[in-house]
């Protein structure tokens, strides 16, 4: 799995769990379940609980860098360890969103171990820096000219917030003739409950949000 081109990794993840759902991990101290708040550094055990509860229902996890760095060094450690805890074959997306090429090394194998990032690019050159390796993907939140970048098809996608659905995003990646859609939920799943039932509540929310990939989005379409 680790050496697959990015679009093939995403296609395999969606087929594996028959899902287009991506769960966003943006922990906040005042919204964590009571069980997690007992820990001195709660983001890691909370992240593990989210993954344990939902890993068979998702194709990806989206890790919100800012939420983790709000805790400083402890948050960075929690982010790295939580991302490493994700089972093999599930896509890991690091949500910056990055606006420069200074984070390339930190984002991927030498740092947090993401498969893809979100970008707010200022130039084509900046986008290219994140996808030199075909195992990496980039989802762009600001339209830029992608002239001359057709060779990078299957690595570059778009993301946008859904109208009238705050905290829910769509990500779209195209590798003609295939199109892959990811439904990214930020808070409605991980904060489904703060009580002892938070695992069951998260799982129920993930099951409700889960959608199957379109037939044309498989390897053999």
Short précis:
The chain has 221 residues and is α/β, with parallel strands linked by helices. The protein has a single domain (6-217), classed as TIM Barrel (Alpha-Beta Barrel), CATH 3.20.20.70. The protein has eight helices and eight strands.
What is the fold's blueprint, element by element?
Blueprint: H1 6-17, E1 21-25, H2 34-37, H3 43-54, E2 60-64, H4 65-69, H5 73-85, E3 91-98, H6 104-107, E4 116-119, H7 124-130, E5 137-140, E6 156-161, E7 168-175, E8 178-185, H8 198-209
Parallel strand pairs: 1-2, 1-8, 2-3, 3-4, 4-5, 5-6
Antiparallel strand pairs: 6-7, 7-8
Helix pairs in contact: 3-5, 3-8
Please characterize this protein's 3D structure.
The protein is α/β, with parallel strands linked by helices and 221 residues long. It has a single domain, classed as Aldolase class I (TIM Barrel, Alpha-Beta Barrel). Helices cover 31% and strands 22% of the residues. The chain contains 8 helices and 8 strands, in the order αβααβααβαβαββββα. The chain has helices spanning 6-17, 34-37, 43-54, 65-69, 73-85, 104-107, 124-130, 198-209; strands at residues 21-25, 60-64, 91-98, 116-119, 137-140, 156-161, 168-175, 178-185. An 8-stranded mixed barrel has the order 1-2-3-4-5-6-7-8. β7 (168-175) and β8 (178-185) form a beta hairpin. α3 packs parallel to α5 (73-85) and α3 (43-54) crosses α8 (198-209). The longest helix is centred in the middle third of the chain and has 13 residues, at 73-85. The protein is globular, with a radius of gyration of 17 Å. The model is unreliable at 217-221 (pLDDT under 50).
């Amino acid at each position: 799995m680790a050496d697959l081109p990015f679009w093939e990794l995403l296609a395999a993840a969606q087929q594996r769990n028959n899902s287009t759902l991506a769960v966003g991990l943006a922990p906040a101290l005042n919204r964590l379940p009571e069980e997690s708040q007992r820990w001195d550094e709660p983001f890691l055990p909370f992240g593990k609980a989210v993954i344990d509860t939902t890993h068979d229902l998702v194709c990806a996890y989206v890790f919100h860098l800012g939420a983790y760095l709000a805790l400083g060094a402890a948050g960075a450690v929690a982010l790295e360890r939580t991302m490493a805890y994700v089972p093999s074959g599930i896509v890991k997306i690091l949500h910056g969103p990055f606006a420069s090429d200074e984070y390339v090394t930190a984002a991927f194998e030498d740092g947090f171990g993401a498969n893809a990032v979100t970008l707010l690019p200022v130039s084509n050159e900046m986008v290219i820096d994140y996808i030199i390796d075909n195992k990496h993907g980039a989802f762009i939140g600001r339209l830029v000219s992608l002239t001359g970048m057709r060779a990078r098809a299957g690595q570059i996608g778009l993301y946008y917030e859904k109208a009238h659905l705050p905290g829910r995003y769509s990500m779209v990646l195209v590798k003609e003739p295939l199109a892959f859609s990811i439904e990214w939920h930020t808070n409605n799943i991980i904060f489904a409950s703060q009580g002892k039932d938070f695992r069951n509540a998260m799982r129920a929310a993930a099951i409700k949000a889960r959608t199957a990939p379109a037939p044309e989005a498989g390897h053999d379409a």
